[in-house]
Amino acid sequence: MTREIHDQFAKDYLSELLSHLGEVETSREVTSEVRQVDVYFIPAATPKDIDPKLLGLLAPMAKTAGLFEPFRNPPTPVEISNCLVKLFGVQGEQRRQARRENVSQTQLESPRLWILSPSISTPILRGFGAKPGESEEWPPGIYFLPKFFYTGLVAIHQLPVTPETLWLRVLGRGEVQKAAIDELVALPEANPLRRYLLEILASWRINVELSQNLDEQEKQELTMNLSPAYLRWREETFLEGRQKGLQEGLQEERRSMIENFLRVRFGEVDEQLSQIIESMLGLPTAELTVMLLNFSRSELLERFGQNR
After folding, report:
1. CA gyration radius for the chain?
2. Nearest to 139, CA basis, from 122, 158, 113
3. pLDDT tens across 217-229, in order?
4. Could you give the dihedral angle defined by the CA atoms of residues 185, 190, 191 and 195, in that order, rounded to the nearest 10 degrees?
């Protein structure tokens, strides 16, 4: 159950982030033996709506098509092998499609598998022949399997605490995750990613609270880590709703005032007069008051388009 709740959160979370850079498909089935890729990503020709730099380390990870497999607990060798099988299945589909479309296989660019883990042990890294990234693009905590495995392992607990690694550190555990969520909550409200990610984190917190099958220690850890995001989301949602309610109340009050003016001036508010009220709501109060006091019925109807 822990895995299922984390999977749903991680899929929503990664989908929201990666959707700004391209096309995202979750729970993608791989043929032969049916398997599902947690998040399958295809980059867009040009980023959709934000500067890719805002995605930090996810941006270079998303330069090519990719399979993203996030784990709540460190994966076992068998679980990593199963992820590799998914990658090989996608590569097989790609080759078959290339043959159907008469595309040279030398032109194919293999998707890359990214395994995101809160931590990875040295024996696991050695067993799979994983080595640290060789370019400056990859900070500590990023490891790669031998070249033709097209696979990167992310040891989240080893990532440096920088803005570039924030989105990945949110997928960590314990103090690593708690610190990252606190950083996310503290982001400026103008950040285009903050609002939606707060909502996703709040949803995860609610699902954790409602779950009857989580280990008590796990539930306590997640509740503590996610509470700042949940509380901030709830506060901002409440304030937004309150502000919206106030605005709607003011609009209704203004509408009632206009109706009363028209009723006093012309005895009733018939269908023609009712139709111009909406157009009058946006006028400055001083201008509106002058019109309501001095304009004749025909002048009001002409001013707001009813006699045109």
Report:
1. 28
2. 158
3. 888 899 899 888 8
4. 60
